[in-house]
Amino acid sequence: MKYVIIGNSTAAVACIEGIRGIDTQGEITVISAEKHAAYGRPLISYYLSGRIKRENMNYRPADFYAKNGVDLMLGKTATSIDAKEKFVALDDGNKIPYDKLLVATGSRPFVPPMEGLDGVKSKFSFMTYDDMLALEAALSPEKKVLVIGAGLIGLKCVEGILQRVKSISVVDMANRILPSILDEGGSLMVQKTLEEKGVKFYLNDSAAKFENNTACLKSGAKIPFDILVVAVGVRPNTELVKDIGGAVNRGIVVDECMRTYLPDIYSAGDCAEGFDSVLKQNRVLAILPNAYFQGKTAGVNMAGGEAKLTNAIPMNAIGFFDTHVLTAGIYEGECYSHVTDKVYKKLFVKDGKLAGFILINDFLRAGIYTSLIRNATPLDSVDFNALLKQPELMAFSKEDRKIKLAKKV
Question: Is 11 within 8 Å of 271 (Cβ atoms)?
Fold first, then answer.
């Protein structure tokens, strides 16, 4: 059996492990446009801030590929797929045949059209290892940095470089930071943390144009800068599947086994749409744990096993200095909250089940809340009042405690 994987991030690694859990003999080829072995993308900001070294960024040990019999093709770009003849064409003219194919091409930065952007010489994205190295080379204590985008990527960039530059300004069209994962109160708490560190925010605003190293905002404000980081958002890399007639919405459409609607072609990770068990619909869940679960599921099925991913939920775990955020699910329904100067805790209950939560600096037994969402546990089967204050296993029925404890063993 010839397995081919396009991409070399979390989903690809998980796919390798899924395949090897069943098939120890089949040939595995990994095609990666990047020139680096798999690394933890969330660690980019930690490296720039000096919290870890480069060697600590590896997602798996250096001998991972050799131990798993993987032919790793770094610095090679897949340009097309021939679904009829079953091969992947590369930019160097080679053709790689496959029996089973995983498309795990991830996403790319979205750069909106902005007048004068082409004239900015020192501009960067913040997604890849090479982005990290290029930005690091430009940093120095006298530099002023402008970040376009106050989402997850933009603010992790801020955290990573804040101590290495003179100042950082952040511009975003939204009226609050982290709008995709936090409500207004949670956003304000994190914003306060960053402002106390010296970050200046321009919200409800955008860059109308750039004049050399000055951003002219729609509000009329002008921000001089030495370094520009564009972190507005990302777009899934779906073209390889779309070009051969595969079903594509925002991401590549897959079923619960991670199969596309093309024979022997699977997809996983940030380029794929998986089933959101909270919303009960397919959508892109661009988070690392989901990429791993999807990749593992795909690998097992590619190797002839049986696996389904039916309980994926949106989750985010992120920290900014001494403020740590954990979110999951959706923020709909009745809200139960506990908010202080340092702690922000909100639980959302819909149709008798926990639908989502926002936890800032309060992670006590967060795994229990996550389990309630993932398993769609009816709240009338647990002591929800106890869970609101201090989630413990004793809040579950005797039968449920036995099941959960058995799983831990």
Answer: no
Bridging pattern class, strands 252-253 and 272-276: parallel
Gap between the Cα atoms of 108 and 120, Å rounded: 20
Residue 401 is predicted with a pLDDT of 47
> What gap in Å lies between CA 8 and CA 12, rounded to an integer?
5
- The segments of the chain whose pLDDT lies below 70 read 389-409
Q: Is 3 helix (H, G, I), strand (E, B) or coil?
A: strand
CA-nearest of 340, 342, 312 to 328 is 312
Distance between CA atoms of 231 and 188, rounded to whole angstroms? 20
Query: Within its chain, how far is the Cα of 275 from the centroid?
Result: 16
pLDDT digits (tens, 9 = 90+) for 123-181: 999 999 999 999 999 999 999 999 999 999 999 999 999 999 999 999 999 999 999 99
Which pTM does this prediction carry? 0.91
pLDDT score for 281: 86
Is the CB of residue 368 less than 8 Å from the CB of residue 357? Answer: no
Under a CB-based contact definition with an 8 Å cutoff, are residues 227 and 145 in contact?
yes
Provide the β-strand partners of residue 25: none
Question: Which H or E element spans position 407?
Answer: helix 398-408
Smallest CA-to-CA distance from 208 within 256, 148, 249 is with: 148
- 91 touches 77 (CB < 8 A): yes
Residue 22 tokens read as 């069943």
SS3 224: strand
102 neighbors 6 (Cβ within 8 angstroms): yes
Give 280's contacts (C-beta < 8 A, 6+ positions apart). Answer: none
Cβ pair 359, 345 in contact under 8 A? yes
